[in-house]
């Protein structure tokens, strides 16, 4: 995959593509600034802006800015360390990060006059706490028991919970689904989730000693976690007293009491509610489910109220009771505002009621008990209720005060503006002639929305702008407005992005329009063939320049500011069909490990343009883990030292660290820069070490370890040195010094003739009457 970035000058911003943070911890999001021209950055010339955007939304939120040493935080506790910033470290510190802050963080840096930016995707995890109860299950044969596995406070939502059984006869086996009841994950107020899974047990004596495991798998666990419960099944003791007890109870009239308890005693309804999200989107339907379980007797009334944050009174929405069945009584027939006085419904109250619909239903259960289910559909309008409470009052004679209340709080989220019809008039702008840029900002609510125009990233546009008042669309109930700006472009405006910035509900939305002036060159993005470059394979980079008139155009291919001349093939300028000139330039190169993550720049200088037009391409080459040879040991002449060396090869990129150890003690560490390139265009390096054994040493293990930063990979090889026992010295015959006038020595042949095939066996076996030549060995 290729990443295309546009640089101005040489400023570089480096960020991690993705990072994982733990919920409710302090997080540091890295942002490294490099390739600036001074040893330290001057705080007066730096502007750093941090933006955050949820992954599922287009709108960005500004988090923190520091401009010329003046910080401003839009998020409680967010900060950038100024002492680190002048060293090139613009990392953003966020204390106690929450799930709602998950998303894409963008670091925009301006070091006058250059600017650049980078992004990091921040993902959050929360490790669940798991409770299995009971841990030891002891029950009699034929009895039933329920195991409950509660998984709390986990994030993200995706989780796996299943049950396994291990017996003495069989290995682990999955428990049948018929015996398992796993609930729907419930969202907590902090964005985490809870879920409960239950296992019904009705064992026999053969199941004694079985181990049941609740197995939980989640992103925050490196492996699935198992929580065990041991089953102990006992025989029920013989007991005949129950017969006597039954007779006594019958005599005392317990059966009527039991019948009363089972069929006639008043039972309070259990009140439960469920909703997918408590943050509702403007004019998007949401469902809330209420259910009242297991109540007796049948008469029961439910009343729904609405309470707005801006009002202290409750607005009655509807009422329903089990005796009238399907007849829902809406608020029009009763006082709407609970103030003690009956007043007619206002227009606002009528509008609020149209946002809610109710669908209650009654179910008859065993033993004369009843359940009530009610689906509430809400279509919220942020103009009328930004935050509200939906209140359910349940009236039943089993409650101590004959009344119980359930309240759910909601927040309605605004609609983010969309930008469309971004146009330029005239369509082909010319230098020195008035032009107008316009765009339509639509589908937003509430109506408060500011629009400003910028040149480049952050430079305010010195021009006349006109933004209309917001207009309400009756169909969508959303607002729209048009904004335009007029100015006379200059040569330096060619190929510059002109940006419309929209500030809405503390969110910033940006859209850009690249201004291409008539008669000035248009430069395409650099294309790469093949799309996925490989080491040692020819790579072709092509860039085209069109729609220019002057032939005095200068193009350059640059690598780190140094012009590339080898492998460049430029065709043109030639006349195009529209009467303008065009050219095409191709750069062919064979990538090596030194080219990993390198930027190749195509620069166009033309006429009165003050700055060249720049296009660049990021060489996304694959990484290769290093390979190591065995350590080679070579004794050094006239010394007891040993020269050790190992070959490190086939790695890319070339950033490695080589460390030598004697046993476990570090004796050498190096970050080599003189990396060579092998025939396969990958990294090649020979690491050497001079080892001098000490007099008392008899055996040593020497290890060489290589750390490859790009792959975070460690490789090592080792060599075992052992001291050899010295041989006893042998006496050599004394040689008389040769007299100065002695004749030169003549060649001499020593011959051993034998008929014994075993003679000279260490050299070769010979037949009878064969001769053997002995080589001269110099020691």
Give a structural overview.
- The N terminus is likely disordered.
- The chain is built from four helices and 59 strands.
- The protein has six domains: 114 residues, Immunoglobulin-like; 106 residues, Immunoglobulin-like (Sandwich), CATH 2.60.40.10; 131 residues, Immunoglobulins (Immunoglobulin-like), CATH 2.60.40.10; 98 residues, Immunoglobulins (Immunoglobulin-like, Sandwich), CATH 2.60.40; 97 residues, Immunoglobulin-like (Sandwich), CATH 2.60.40.10; 95 residues, Sandwich (Immunoglobulin-like).
- It starts with 11 loop residues before the first strand and ends in a 6-residue tail after the last strand.
- By secondary structure, the chain is mostly beta strands.
- A hairpin with a 6-residue loop joins strand 50 and strand 51.
- Strands 2, 5, 6, 7, 9, 10, 33, 34, 38 and 39 form a ten-stranded mixed sheet that branches. A six-stranded mixed sheet has the order 22-30-29-24-25-26, with no helix packed on it.
What are the salient characteristics of this protein?
single chain; 779 residues; mainly beta; Immunoglobulin-like; 6 domains; ten-stranded mixed sheet; six-stranded mixed sheet; 4% helix; disordered N terminus
Helix content: under 10%
As an assembly, this protein is single chain
What is the top-level CATH class of the largest domain?
Mainly Beta
Going by helix content, strand content and strand pairing, the class is mainly beta
Number of helices: 4
């Amino acid at each position: 995959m290729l990443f295309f970035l546009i640089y101005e000058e040489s400023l570089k911003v480096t960020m991690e593509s993705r990072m994982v943070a733990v919920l409710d911890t302090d997080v540091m999001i890295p942002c490294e600034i490099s390739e600036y021209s001074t040893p330290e950055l001057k705080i007066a010339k730096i502007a750093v802006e941090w933006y955050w955007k949820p992954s599922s939304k287009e709108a960005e939120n500004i988090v923190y800015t520091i401009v010329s040493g003046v910080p401003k935080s839009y998020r409680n506790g967010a900060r950038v360390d100024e002492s680190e910033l002048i060293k090139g470290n613009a990392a953003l510190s966020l204390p106690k990060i929450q799930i709602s802050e998950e998303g894409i963080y963008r670091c925009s840096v301006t070091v006058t006059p250059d600017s650049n930016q980078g992004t990091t995707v921040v993902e959050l995890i929360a490790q669940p706490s798991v409770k299995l109860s009971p841990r030891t299950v002891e029950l009699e044969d034929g009895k039933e028991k329920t195991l409950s596995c509660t998984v709390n406070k986990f994030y993200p939502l995706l989780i796996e919970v299943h049950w396994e059984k291990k017996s003495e006869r069989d290995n682990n086996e999955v428990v049948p689904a018929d015996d398992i009841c796993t609930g729907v994950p419930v969202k907590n107020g902090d964005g985490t989730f809870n879920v409960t899974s239950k296992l019904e047990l009705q064992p026999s004596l053969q199941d004694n000693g079985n181990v049941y495991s609740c197995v939980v798998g989640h992103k925050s666990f490196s492996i699935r976690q198992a929580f065990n419960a041991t089953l102990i099944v006992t025989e029920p003791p013989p007991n005949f007293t129950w017969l006597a007890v039954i007779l006594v109870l019958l005599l005392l009239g317990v059966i009527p009491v039991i019948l009363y308890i089972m069929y006639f005693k008043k039972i309070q309804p259990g009140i439960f509610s469920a909703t997918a999200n408590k943050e509702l989107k403007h004019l998007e339907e949401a469902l809330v489910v209420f259910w009242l379980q297991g109540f007796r007797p049948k008469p029961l009334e439910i009343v729904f109220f609405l309470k707005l944050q801006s009002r202290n009174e409750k607005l009655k929405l509807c009422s329903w009771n089990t005796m009238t069945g399907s007849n829902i009584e809406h608020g029009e027939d009763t006082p709407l505002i609970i103030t003690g006085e009956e007043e007619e419904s206002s227009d606002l109250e009528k509008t609020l009621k149209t946002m809610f619909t109710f669908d209650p239903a009654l179910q008859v259960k065993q033993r004369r008990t009843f359940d009530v289910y009610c689906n509430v559909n809400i279509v919220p309008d942020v103009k009328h209720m930004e935050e509200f409470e939906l209140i359910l009052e349940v009236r039943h004679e089993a409650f101590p005060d004959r009344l119980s209340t359930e309240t759910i709080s909601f927040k309605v989220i605004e609609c983010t503006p969309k930008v469309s019809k971004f146009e330029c008039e005239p369509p082909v702008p010319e230098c020195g002639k008035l032009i107008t840029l316009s765009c339509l900002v639509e589908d937003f609510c509430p109506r408060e929305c500011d629009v400003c125009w910028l040149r480049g990233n952050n430079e305010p546009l010195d021009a006349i702008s006109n933004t209309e008042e917001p207009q309400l669309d009756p169909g969508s109930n959303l607002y729209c407005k048009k904004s335009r700006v007029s100015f006379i472009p200059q040569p330096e405006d060619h190929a510059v992005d002109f940006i419309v910035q929209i500030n809405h509900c503390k969110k910033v939305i940006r859209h850009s329009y690249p201004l291409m002036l008539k008669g000035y060159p248009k430069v395409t993005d650099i294309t790469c063939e093949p799309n996925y470059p490989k080491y040692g394979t020819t790579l072709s980079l092509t860039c085209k320049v069109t729609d220019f008139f002057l032939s005095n155009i200068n193009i350059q291919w640059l690598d780190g500011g140094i012009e590339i001349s080898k492998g460049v093939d430029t065709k043109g300028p030639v006349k195009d069909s529209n009467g303008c000139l065009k050219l095409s330039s191709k750069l062919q190169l064979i990538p090596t490990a030194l080219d990993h993550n390198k930027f190749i720049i195509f620069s166009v200088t033309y006429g009165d343009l003050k700055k060249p037009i720049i296009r660049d391409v990021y060489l996304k080459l694959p990484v290769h883990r290093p390979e190591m040879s065995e350590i080679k040991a070579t004794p050094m002449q006239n010394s007891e030292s040993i020269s050790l060396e190992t070959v490190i090869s086939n790695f890319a990129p070339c950033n490695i660290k080589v460390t030598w150890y004697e046993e476990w003690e570090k004796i050498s560490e190096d970050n080599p820069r003189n990396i060579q390139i092998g025939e396969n265009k990958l990294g090649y390096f020979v690491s050497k070490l001079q080892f001098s054994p000490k007099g008392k040493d008899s055996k040593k293990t020497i290890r060489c370890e290589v750390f490859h930063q790009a792959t975070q990979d460690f490789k090592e090889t080792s060599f075992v040195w052992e001291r050899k026992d010295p041989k006893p010295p042998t006496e050599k015959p004394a040689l008389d010094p040769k007299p100065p006038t002695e004749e030169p020595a003549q060649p001499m042949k020593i011959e051993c003739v034998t008929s014994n095939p075993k003679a000279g066996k260490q050299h070769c076996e010979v037949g009878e009457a064969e001769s053997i030549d002995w080589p001269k060995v110099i020691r």
